[in-house]
Amino acid sequence: MTSLLTLRRAFVINRILIRHGLEEFLAPTPLSRLTQLMRLFALTSNRNKSLNRGQRLNQALTELGPIFIKLGQMLSTRRDLLPDDIADELAKLQDKVAPFESEVAINVVEQQLNSPIDQVFSQFDRTPLASASVAQVHSATLINGDDVVVKIIRPGIKKKIKADLKLLYLLAGWFEKYSSTGRRLHAKTIIKDYQTTLFNELDLRIEAANTSQLKRNFEDNSILYVPAVYWDLCRKRVMVQEKISGIPIGDIEALKSADVDMRLLAHRGVEIFFTQVFKHSYFHADMHPGNIFVDASNPQDPKYIGIDCGIMGTLNESDKRYLAQNFVAFFNRDYRRIAELHLDSGWIPAKVSVEEFESAIRTACEPIFGKPLDEISFGQFLVQLFQTARRFEMEVQPQLVLLQKTLLYIEGLGRQLYPKLDLWETAQPFLKSWLKETYGPKAVWLKMKNKAPEWLEQLPEMPDKINKLLDQVEKREEHQHQLVNAIQTLKKAQSRGAQKIVWALAGTALVMAGFSELPGWLSAQWGDVGLLTLSLVCFMVSFRS
């Protein structure tokens, strides 16, 4: 049963949406019945009428608080489902909230580390560097002199998240029940994915492990630096990490003032993305400008610095092959190949016509090629591809949604840094080289070479395994033969049963005829006794059957 607290929160949401002129989002739900009443409590209705609905939704979610801000940020990644005006504005949501008291932060650190703070840090800055909905960050210095940052989970946030999630599930259920758009969006599934992401962010050990993995992946590649984690000082609600210094990637003026090679910086951003996706199968899925800095100590050899690894994406071999081959086919305008890749991967039902799907992809993608090559967007291609594929019953995979979001971030940053960035020029050699190295003759030979010791080890056991396999085949054939016989027996039984019913019905009809007034010719030919005798014969035949 819905609690009074949940209903109260639903009442507040209703009032805020109406105040921002967003009644259309309530129309498919039972809350729409309260719209007139809510206008009395909204104080000002349809505030900022000059703003579009996306801008007004941005404001409403900001007023609703941190959990709704993060939900809006996540929804902004579903450009395959949302209108562009809403997705664009949701992407601008900033996860910034008022910090909690420094005394509270210190208490959390001391409880988690089971030690007085002055025994761990020689200095702890009471003013936070940053404060977000789930955690805030403080600068500090360790006893050994290392400069670090301390990330601390916001007290009481788990209880608040659970309460808001309960309400979001209720709203999502209404949305799916009363709105075709809600069913198409799979609203409850989106909230479930959101819940998983949120609860992962509440355990900073997960972020610490993600950070260590990403750092290890780029140990031999200096274009991305990931700060070190102090594992001895990491707990569920506290994480201590190396403090970095650099220019925020979004501060274009500062980068230009430092004489940074912007073209090289933009190309390296694309290279980092493709290296994470295709080489490591593990990528930072939250690479917005606030999480990326630039080491400009050598302006002609700039390096990226990545922080906040709370959300990471992974891809399997099938996903990587699908993406690489689709990208190559896209830039070759080979829409037939794209359609075949979807069918071969099983992502589109086998019943779908290749020709029909090819035509739909061509219609969606051709306008993209109306732009100069340096303006063609990988991210926009994925958005169009997913939108088209959903019409043919393709369920978008969560890891690909994360990838699409990351690619849109990287492209936006790249073009902001260097407007004439030609993504295809950067990506094509990488993709073709990866496909060749992974699926070319040399790659096949290396795989066989690596498997050879295992095959040789199993070789003496092969005769026994073959015998077992043949026995299984024989047993399977025997079972199939028994099944065929059983089916034939059943068919015969059904046939006999049908005959029995026919004879019984005939006998019943003759009995009924014997007790009714017969036509003259029938009565003269058979008579009542004759009909009853004939019916008795029919019943006897039926019983024998």
UniProtKB/TrEMBL annotation:
A GO CC term assigned to this protein in UniProt: plasma membrane
UniProt entry keywords in alphabetical sequence: ATP-binding, Cell inner membrane, Cell membrane, Kinase, Membrane, Nucleotide-binding, Transferase, Transmembrane, Transmembrane helix, Ubiquinone, Ubiquinone biosynthesis
Keyword Cytoplasm set for record: no
Domain ABC1 atypical kinase-like, chain residue ranges per copy: 92-342
First-tier enzyme category under EC: transferase
Active site: 286
Cross-referenced InterPro entries: ABC1_dom, Kinase-like_dom_sf, UbiB, UbiB_bact, UbiB_kinase
Pfam families given in the database record: ABC1
Pathway(s) this gene product operates in, as recorded in its UniProt entry: Cofactor biosynthesis; ubiquinone biosynthesis [regulation]
Matching SUPFAM superfamilies: Protein kinase-like (PK-like)
Binding site for ATP: 129-137, 151
MF-aspect GO terms: ATP binding; protein kinase activity
Assigned EC number: 2.7.-.-
UniProt signal peptide: none
Positions of transmembrane segments: none
A Gene Ontology biological process term: regulation of ubiquinone biosynthetic process
Function per UniProt: Is probably a protein kinase regulator of UbiI activity which is involved in aerobic coenzyme Q (ubiquinone) biosynthesis.
PANTHER family found in the cross-reference section: CHAPERONE-ACTIVITY OF BC1 COMPLEX CABC1 -RELATED (PTHR10566), PROTEIN ACTIVITY OF BC1 COMPLEX KINASE 7, CHLOROPLASTIC (PTHR10566:SF113)
Family of the protein in this entry: Belongs to the ABC1 family. UbiB subfamily. Belongs to the protein kinase superfamily. ADCK protein kinase family.
Protein name: Probable protein kinase UbiB
Species, as recorded: Aliikangiella coralliicola
